[in-house]
Design goal:
475 residues, alpha+beta, Beta-Lactamase, 4 domains, five-stranded antiparallel sheet, PAS_4
C-alpha cells in the first residue's frame, strides 16, 4: 500500500465514524495483475470501541480501460484539488487533496468565501458550461487564493448534470503580484512627485516612461502616458530649438547613446535663458543593454544664485565697482599677460582729497554720495576692457590693459578734471571735491602685484605732496 493511499484511508475514518459510506473505484494487484473493483467503505465498531473500516469489494458495474484506470490513479495522487458536485451543488466526490484541505465542507457554495458569488457561478455554468477564475476559496481552517477551473459534465452513473472543479493554490503568486502592484504604484507616486524630468527609453529609442515634470520642462501639453511608444529621435529633433546650441544638443545625445559606457552629466543652456542639468544613465541587465534614462533638472535659480554670490563676493556694495579681492585676481592675470605676451598695461591709484574733512563736516551719508559719484565717473569714462575697483575707504584703483604711459596719463588728467567739475547735491548746500591720481605701469620685471601697487601708491602720494588735485607718474 502506498503512503498516499495509507493517508487517504486514515482520513476516511472520521467520516466513517459519523456514518458516511464512501464508494470508490480501486485497483488491486494480486499476483502483479491489475484487478479493478468497486469498493464500498463503511464504519464498524470494533470490540475495543475503536472505529474500524469495512471494505466490501463489489464487481464493478463499469468496465474501465487502462487509460481510465490511470486517470483515476492520477486524480487520487495529484496535489491539485478535484471535486465533483451534482447540478445543485451537492458534493458527489473529491480527491484526497481536496478532502484534506476541505473536511466538513460538502457543498459547492461552502467552498467559496462569497456564497452569493458561488451561486452566480452555478447559474453561469448552465449557459457557458466552462469557466476559469482566480478567487479566494474557503478551506478547512483558512482562506486562500486559488485558480479554479469549472466545467459542466454528465454524471456517467445517473446521466444528470455534474460539476467538475479543479483548484490549485496561487496565494504566493497573488501576494507577490499585490506587492508588485503596490511597489509600482509607490514608484509612480514618487516619480510624479519628483521635481526632475524623467525620460526612459528602450534599446530601440522608444519612450517607455516619462513624467509630468518632463512635460512641463519642455512645454508638452500631452499627458505623459500619451508619449509612451513615441520615437525619441523624432522627439529630440523637434525639441532642439529649445536650446542655444541645437546641433550640439543633438550630437551629444548621439555620442552618449553610441558609447553606452558610463553615466554622464551635462549643462544645457536654453534659448529662453534657463539652465538645465541633464544626466544620462545606460541601463544594463545581466550585461545586456536595455535602454537608458535621461534626467533633466532645472537649475536656473541655482545658477543665478551662484552668479549673484560670485558678483557679491567680488563687488563693493556701496559703489557697485569691483572690490579688492576682484582687483587682486584681475591684476595677477594682467601681470602674467605682461610677462608672457609682452602686453602693456597701466594702473591708476585714485584717492579723494581731504575725504575725512568731508565726512566730519557734512556727514558720512554725503561722503558716500562722493564715493558713488567717483565710481559713476569711472564707469562712464573708461573702456569696457578697463577694470575700476574700490580698494577700500576713499581709495580707488583702475587696471588698464594695453595702455601706454602717455595714454594712461592723458586719461588720468581727464578723469581728474571731470571729478573736480562735478557737483554733489548735499542736503544743506552743494559741494565739490577733488582727487589725486598716481599713474604707473605693469612691468615684466615686477616681482609681484604689491610691487606695482606700491609704485602707484608712491605716485599718488607724490601728487598729494605737490598740492593735490593733480596727476603724478612713476612708470
Amino acid at each position: 500500500m502506498s503512503e498516499a493511499t495509507r493517508r487517504r484511508l486514515a482520513d476516511y475514518l472520521p467520516r466513517l465514524a459519523e456514518g458516511e459510506v464512501i464508494d470508490e473505484h480501486w485497483s488491486f494487484y494480486p499476483g502483479g495483475q491489475a484487478v479493478s473493483m468497486h469498493c464500498r467503505c463503511s464504519g464498524i465498531v470494533m470490540g475495543d470501541g475503536r472505529t474500524g473500516m469495512l471494505i466490501e469489494g463489489l464487481e464493478s458495474e463499469i468496465s474501465l480501460d487502462a487509460s481510465s484506470l490511470r486517470a483515476l490513479e492520477a486524480v487520487r495522487h495529484t496535489p491539485m484539488m478535484v471535486s465533483v458536485f451534482d447540478g445543485h451543488g451537492r458534493l458527489l466526490m473529491r480527491n484526497p487533496a481536496a478532502f484534506e484541505a476541505r473536511r466538513g465542507l460538502t457543498s459547492f457554495k461552502a467552498c467559496f468565501t462569497d456564497h452569493d458569488f458561488a451561486g452566480q457561478i452555478l447559474e453561469q455554468l448552465k449557459d457557458e458550461q466552462r469557466c476559469s477564475l482566480d478567487t479566494i476559496m474557503q478551506l478547512r481552517d483558512s482562506e486562500r487564493w486559488h485558480h479554479v477551473d469549472l466545467c459542466l459534465a454528465t454524471d456517467p452513473k445517473t446521466g444528470l448534470p455534474m460539476i467538475v472543479m479543479g483548484e490549485f493554490d496561487i496565494t504566493e503568486r497573488k501576494t507577490l503580484e499585490t506587492a508588485q502592484r503596490v511597489s509600482k504604484h509607490q514608484l509612480e507616486v514618487v516619480i510624479e512627485g519628483l521635481d526632475v524630468g524623467l525620460l526612459l527609453e528602450d534599446e530601440n529609442r522608444r519612450v517607455v516612461m516619462v513624467n509630468q515634470a518632463f512635460c512641463d520642462l519642455f512645454a508638452i501639453e500631452a499627458p505623459p502616458e500619451a508619449l509612451v511608444g513615441m520615437d525619441c529621435r523624432e522627439a529630440a529633433q523637434s525639441s532642439k530649438g529649445f536650446f542655444t546650441e541645437p546641433e550640439g544638443f543633438m550630437a551629444r545625445i548621439e555620442e552618449l547613446i553610441m558609447e553606452r559606457s558610463k553615466q554622464a552629466r551635462d549643462l544645457l543652456t536654453m534659448a529662453d535663458g534657463r539652465f538645465l542639468e541633464r544626466s544620462y544613465t545606460p541601463l544594463f541587465v545581466a550585461n545586456q543593454y536595455h535602454g537608458h534614462l535621461w534626467v533633466y533638472r532645472d537649475i536656473t535659480r541655482q545658477r543665478r544664485q551662484e552668479a549673484d554670490w560670485v558678483r557679491k563676493a567680488s563687488t563693493d556694495p556701496l559703489t557697485g565697482l569691483a572690490n579688492r579681492r576682484s582687483f587682486e585676481e584681475s591684476a595677477r592675470r594682467v601681470a602674467r599677460a605682461v610677462k608672457e605676451e609682452e602686453l602693456q598695461a597701466a594702473l591708476l591709484m585714485i584717492d579723494i582729497d581731504r575725504f575725512k574733512t568731508i565726512n566730519d563736516t557734512l556727514g558720512h551719508a554725503e561722503g558716500d554720495k562722493g564715493l558713488r559719484l567717483l565710481a559713476d565717473t569711472l564707469r562712464v569714462n573708461l573702456r569696457n576692457s578697463d577694470l575700476p575697483c574700490r580698494n577700500g575707504g576713499e581709495e580707488f584703483m583702475v587696471i588698464m590693459p594695453g595702455m601706454t604711459q602717455e595714454e594712461a596719463q592723458t586719461i588720468a588728467w581727464r578723469l581728474l578734471r571731470q571729478i573736480a567739475e562735478a557737483t554733489i547735491e548735499a542736503e544743506e548746500l552743494p559741494f565739490h571735491f577733488t582727487v589725486s591720481i598716481g599713474v604707473t605701469g605693469f612691468k615684466p620685471t615686477d616681482a609681484n602685484i604689491e610691487t606695482v601697487t606700491q609704485r602707484a601708491d608712491a605716485a599718488m602720494y607724490q601728487a598729494k605732496h605737490e598740492g593735490r588735485n593733480r596727476v603724478a607718474v612713476r612708470w
